Amino acid sequence: MNPSAARSDRIFRFEQFELLEREGELRKKGARIKLQEQPFQVLVELLASAGRVVTREQLQQKLWPADTFVDFDVGLNTAIRKLRLALGDDAESPHYVETSAKRGYRFLAPVDITTGASELVGEHATPAEPLTKPVGMRPETAANVHAPASEKHGRWYLMMAAFAFVALALGVLWRDRWSVKHPVVEKRITANPAEAPIVSAVVSPDGKYLVYADTTGVYLRQIDSGEIRPLPQPKDFNAFPTSWFPDSTHLLVTSFNGKEKPSVWKASILGGTPQMLAYDAGEGLVSPDGSQIAFFRYAFVDAVRQKGNSTQSPPLRELWLMASNGENPHKVVGPRDVTGSGYEGTEVSAVSWAPRGHQLAYIEHLYTASSFSSGDLFWLKTRDLTSEKSQLILSDQRVGSRALCWAPDGRLLYTSLTDPKSERSDYGVLAIVVDQQTGKARGYPERVTEGLGWIGGLSVTASGKQLVVWRGNTQSQVFVSEFDKGMHRLAAPRRLTMDQNANLPTAWTPDSKSVLFLSNRNGAWKLFKQDIDQQTAEVLVESRHIESVLPSLSADGSQILFVDASRLDETSNPIRLMSMPVSGGMPRLVLQDRGINHFLCARTPSTVCVFSKSVGTTTSLITFDTERGKGRELVRFEGWHNWSVSPNGSQLAMITDDHGGRLRFLSLETEATRDVIVKGWPMLTGIGWTADGTGLLIGSFTSAGTSVILDVDMEGKARVLLEGDTRTQVFAWVIPSPDGRYAALNGFTGENNVWMVENF
Length: 760
Prior knowledge:
760 residues; mainly beta; Arc Repressor Mutant, subunit A; Neuraminidase; 3 domains; disordered N terminus
């Protein structure tokens, strides 16, 4: 076979690269990169199927039809190695070519495909209006690919080619000056401290007001003068503003207090009683003409609901529509079955109205079995409300899942990781022009802003001149508190980790002097140890994907147990549970299995260890030994239960209904079970045992929404050990020290504020 004989005139573009299929060339910023024929053809096949796995069998049939399997196997491995070298990619931390173990390869970066002459005269030069058609994981759902240009575009190409020729001849073409315009500057317009982080914000259509909620209430800020006044709320009405009506006087707010389902309300900035429009609904968004409202409802997977567990599996977001008075609610997009795709399922995570109102843009989140989203995929789509047809705009793992905004000039604004290779969550705003008639993309994405932190919301004024970005830098931190046994309370926590990045407590050293925690402070997740009387920490474990499951210690405290999975986004791949001496040394394999998501050991003299694994909707709890590996299965159930092993290894406790206050105790000797209800505390979060094993430490919330830590006995009777300040402290879980004197708490702190971009 002669691959070059069958070449088309397709041109593939991704980031700084351009591949010209007919010429057999790969270029970076216009400079040709040497790449042999076989790696070149492999790259063509991967680019043509960007976003989905191309199997080894498909590559064999396409590129090695006459070779034996052994020759093909060696040849393909060599080709992939050379391809990664040419792209500057890393097999262990891929940015472009990802290995799907025992299956094939997937190209990760967004790819644009056109036909005709090369257009790339700079690093990211943009064509006029190329049409799009979807290509991706499956034929009907895929990444952004450009169709053949029209005659008008052909003339444009010739003009650009002539200009480029003259410029090169004169020696005045500076490639870097043809890149996309620099991101505009974000100007901060709120100055909330860490004690009152902003939790939602949206700008009024006329650009006069910003309404926002923080942990103290809801406020209206006049943008020009900076004057701020609180918006009165009824008692027990915990409001989060999500949208404005076109009159810039009325708002949509979501009310949620943690005890009942969320609801959507209409409220006025002039005062008066809010009007409920929908129950079991949230995050409403008013259409540009004010006639309709898009909102979310939260559904559980059907298979899980049918088997009697509707509380422990995470609810999935469905996109609904209703009239602006709350009538005629109906589902538009819900979770879909993606069996065979390598993903567990889908949900809709963000939505925006087109300026003319008959189209919706939304983000469809394809999630994996991993507890972290490193392998998740996000599809940016549009949907025509008349024809009910959807168009795929782009497919990317770097897209932020919660923020979307369709500007009046036709640009669809979304968020994306600024540096995909970093494990920090810093996002910027990108824009791509979308035709409001067809719902199809026109052009390539361009960066609008950059900044530090995640982005929780985007909104734009009716004039399109002002963009508001709700940006968050709240991070998980480690706090330490001392038990006051006389008062049966925990003293006021003090912050142990002073770094501004994420820090997650996971265990204590056996001597109760130091806390082990995960942190991405150096740009990648690592396991640290810090003495409770010290200000600095030392690194214990550096391993890719260590963040995906919290590490723990062996029963005697001498070994660190952690996972090291090379492909957590592929559910068919086993996850490797590793062990390494706390004092340092080489890691060794303890066991490997699919879907490992939690593991804990009792304390010496017990040697009991348990891990949980989730495959599909089924979770199993299995014993293991750090020397001999996997043991027996203890229990299997649908969904997910938060669980913990007692210090003496005699029993296991789990939360079986986190909104009903139900606990289950499982004897590890007889496998007998016993259920109890935590009286007066229906919402339960993290669970762990007290140091002496006589009770449980469980997170919950008061009726006012204040975070608390409970001491729960074996009969379900609870006492409050610690109550956080509503405005400042939310505790996700607590880990007692082995001697019972201290507790390490996972708390959250940091500044969330609102920024504005003008004339973007």
